[in-house]
Design goal:
This protein is globular. The chain has an eight-stranded antiparallel sheet. A two-stranded antiparallel ribbon has the order 6-7. The protein contains 14 helices and ten strands. The mean pLDDT is 91. It is of the alpha+beta class and 402 residues long.
Length: 402
């Protein structure tokens, strides 16, 4: 005789599935719809960032409900500028991208901001890259009575991964693994060592700090407010070659932060190493089917819109005893397309004499063009400093606008 089986008890996960689904927002920005745009709009009345110059309540209304496929919203974009509305030294951009798609989903915001920050660069333009150091004229013999160090750095992000403000733990771990494999494949002058930040001993930290690889303050306010510092220091690390003159940070502001540096005034040698190392890395990442993120109009796509294009910063620590105190020093730098940055505590004892001078532009010029601005500008500044020391007029040396 056949017996009927007792009815199966439906699992709770299925029984209440329709109720649970109603509680889970499908739109990443759906929670913002609970309050009006006027109620959610940040107070920008005293905000000194570039973001505050661009964002209006009307724009906020149009964009606040949008999100990239990974879930990055406009409020995520502007949060660093909301949290850090002022800066004691320089005016900040005040926003970040959470992924490459951010620049297209929020183009109504990013396009005018990029144009404002990058001196009129149009999104219809095509960014050109030139990383052939043979095209650089001079730069191998900057006067070392003035020039103390030379450094060239940039960032790179990897296709198909969210950027540091928005990437998941799993993505961060995958990026670290990918970076270690790539750097271990380097040889010759680029053969080196990777240091996981969470495994560093106090002695190793001190050694890396003395070598200029680590700094006392690894986490900035921007990293905290943007979300870059989540889970710190998990899956973060620094790699350097044996000579400690080619360095890479992993999972900090960008997926990779590359620096070539050395003492003295041979900027061409620094730039040559920079170009060679980056080309090798780009080839390895491409072979692994994880190329660096690039768009024709934006160049290399980085987390901060201030770094779009080349992302390149060619910096010289230079002792300028006289011209740095001239009342037109700022105008001279502007005409040379250069800018002065803080040297921190490195040269605190001679802070008034030592300047950190670098290129002011990132996009719209190639890497070689930006290095040429720096090399030519540094030579002129040294010449002007000598003229003032000798009580000679510098009027004829004033540069025209580059």
């Amino acid at each position: 005789m056949w017996k009927l089986k007792p009815p199966l008890e439906m699992p709770l996960s299925l029984k209440y599935k329709h109720i649970v689904e109603r509680l889970i927002p499908h739109d990443p920005a759906i929670n913002l719809k609970k309050l009006s745009a006027e109620e959610e709009f940040p107070n920008l009345s005293k905000n000194q960032t570039y973001m505050a110059n661009i964002l209006t309540i009307q724009m906020y209304k149009r964009l606040r409900d949008r999100a990239t496929q990974s879930g990055f919203t406009l409020d995520d974009v502007i949060q660093p500028g909301v949290d850090n509305s002022e800066h004691s030294c320089t005016r900040t951009v005040g926003c970040v991208a959470g992924d490459a798609e951010s620049y297209s989903v929020f183009m109504e915001f990013f396009d005018p901001l990029i144009e404002l920050y990058h001196h009129g660069y149009q999104q219809s333009g095509m960014h050109r890259s030139n990383m052939n150091p043979e095209n650089l004229k001079g730069g191998a013999d900057l006067d070392e009575q003035y020039v103390l160090t030379c450094q060239v750095s940039t960032g790179r992000n990897v296709d198909d991964f969210c950027f540091p403000p928005h990437c998941s733990r799993g993505e961060r771990h995958a990026l670290e693994k990918l970076a270690i494999e790539a750097f271990n494949a380097l040889d010759g002058e680029f053969k080196g060592t990777y240091h996981s930040l969470k495994n560093l001993s106090e002695e190793e930290c001190q050694q890396l700090t003395t070598a200029g690889i680590l700094t006392d303050n690894l986490i900035s306010p921007l990293m905290l407010s943007s979300g870059m510092a989540r889970d710190w220091p998990d899956a973060r690390g620094v790699w350097h070659n044996d000579m400690k003159n080619f360095i890479a940070w992993i999972n900090k502001e960008d997926h990779l932060r590359i620096t070539s540096m050395q003492q003295g005034g041979n900027m061409k040698q620094v730039f040559t190493r920079y170009c060679s190392g980056l080309k090798k890395l780009e080839e390895i990442y491409h072979q692994k089917k994880h190329p660096f993120t690039w768009k024709n109009n934006l160049g290399y796509v980085l987390t901060c819109p201030s770094d779009l294009g080349t992302g390149l910063r060619a910096s010289v620590h230079i002792r300028l005893k006289y011209i740095s105190k001239h009342n037109k020093f700022g105008e001279i730098l502007q005409r040379l397309r250069l800018e002065k940055n803080s040297t921190g505590a490195v040269y605190a004892s001679v802070e008034s004499e030592v300047c950190d001078i670098s290129n002011a532009d990132r996009i719209g010029f190639s890497e070689v063009q930006l290095l040429q601005f720096v090399v030519d500008g540094i030579k002129l500044l040294i010449n002007m400093d000598k003229y003032i020391e000798q009580d000679r007029p510098i009027d004829d040396l004033f540069p025209t606008q580059k």
